[in-house]
Design a protein that fits this description.
The structure holds 2 protein chains of 2 kinds.
Chain A lengths: L3 E2 L4 E5 L4 E7 L6 E7 L6 E7 L4 E4 L2 E6 L4 E6 L8 E8 L6 E3 L3 E6 L1
Parallel strand pairs in A: 2-11
Antiparallel strand pairs in A: 1-3, 3-8, 4-5, 4-9, 6-7, 7-8, 9-10, 9-11
Chain B lengths: L3 E4 L2 E4 L5 E7 L5 E8 L3 E10 L2 E4 L6 E3 L9 E3 L8 E8 L7 E3 L3 E5 L1
Parallel strand pairs in B: 2-11
Antiparallel strand pairs in B: 1-3, 3-8, 4-5, 4-9, 5-6, 7-8, 9-10, 9-11
The chains are: A mainly beta, B mainly beta.
């Protein structure tokens, strides 16, 4: 029962272009969403988050969009840089439930 | 400024052996958790704790025990290792409140043969 799904295991983007990573969720009770980035042999690190009361949150080159009616969120990276090559996990939480639920991850490769 | 420290980084166990994965944080976070990462499965929650003396099960708790005697430490115990427990294990501690922004350790790569 995968409540948070990242259906693209991998994505390849040319340097300087836009990277769009997608995430779908099934539980309408989720009310806070986060993106994490993971390099090999390291733990995930927090990247950006969004509350369910918003539909967009921007931080530098990173923007997260939330479409509650579609139960879909996406992470946009513009412009993509070689250092963005990593695995990206989306995660969701229900307030008060104390459990962070992760998707399967998407491996992003930025090509020079 | 250590953050979350996990030991060991690598471990090979024989089936049936026991061991404890250590996790310590210096951020005074009440909430701590253990995840395992497997190919195609993402990060799955094993156990979590909302404070010293309080623990609860996550998605995949079978075969694992935890305890939380201090705010800083949250060890994960494998009582009788099985090959299905071969995985990368991550400990995390999280900021208070609803956001649960998690800070992860570097992981422990465990192989059970």
């Amino acid at each position: 029962d995968q409540q948070v799904k990242q259906n693209s295991p991998s994505l390849s983007v040319q340097e300087g272009r836009i990277s769009i990573l997608n995430c779908d969720y099934t539980n309408s009770m989720f009310d806070y969403f986060l993106w994490y980035k993971k390099y090999p042999a390291e733990g995930p690190t927090f990247l950006i988050s969004i509350s369910s009361i918003k539909d967009k949150n921007e931080d530098g080159r990173f923007t997260v969009f939330l479409n509650k009616s579609a139960k879909h969120l996406s992470l946009h990276i513009v412009p993509s840089q070689p250092g963005d090559s990593a695995v990206y996990f989306c995660a969701a939480i229900i307030q008060g439930a104390q459990k962070l639920v992760f998707g399967q991850g998407t491996r992003l490769t930025i090509n020079p | 400024n250590a953050g979350v420290t996990q030991t060991p980084k690598f471990q090979v166990l024989k089936t049936g052996q026991s061991m404890t994965l250590q996790c310590a944080q210096d951020m005074n976070h009440e909430y701590m958790s253990w995840y395992r990462q497997d190919p195609g499965m993402g990060l799955r929650l094993i156990h979590y704790s909302v404070g010293a003396g309080i623990t609860d099960q996550g998605e995949v708790p079978n075969g694992y025990n935890v305890s939380r005697s201090t705010t800083e430490d949250f060890p994960l115990r494998l009582l009788s290792a099985a090959p299905s427990q071969t995985s990368v294990y991550f400990c995390a501690s999280s900021t208070p409140g609803v956001t649960k922004k998690a800070f992860f350790g570097q992981g422990t790569r465990l192989t059970v043969v």
